[in-house]
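Researcher: Re-running this chain for the archive, since the previous output was lost when a drive failed. Same request as before.
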Amino acid sequence: MSTLRTVLATVACGWLLLVVTREINHAFASAALSVFTFGLPLAFAALRLDFTSGWRSVICLGLMADALAPVRFGLHALLYLVIFLLIFRVRQRVPREENLVGTVISILATVVVHAAFTLNYIWYGPTPGRLMSRVLMEAGLSSLLVALVAPWYFSFTEHVLSWFGVDLRRETRGLF
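Model: Regenerated structure tokens:
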């Protein structure tokens, strides 16, 4: 398997998704809202890639997200890796090639990551209880955006992988 090419292609697609999400957040800034879509690359890596390429991609994407956020270095990477491992563990029980399954798992991963980061930092504010409506609004907007973008993102990433010479249909999907 061409692990390096797979990781590079997956990270490039995740980076593109991050750039688009940051532009959407810039548009929502006047309403004091933001969206989070990083459950998509996590779900794609856990559902469609082999274990080695998947965890390497997730670590790279997590470190990239760490570089852009004012959090402890490695926090995104650690949380992304934990969620990747949970999804990877469950993937044998679901039809992982289906777009609907990928979309649902992406929404769940997005909500979990968003909730983890939000609840981690909301308690440091002066009135955490008043912010819960905003947190729920952002989770709903993020879920809606992920539901709309997930089929496109999965298809786009598979096409980029095919441009890099990686055929996911022929790849082994074992643990290593």
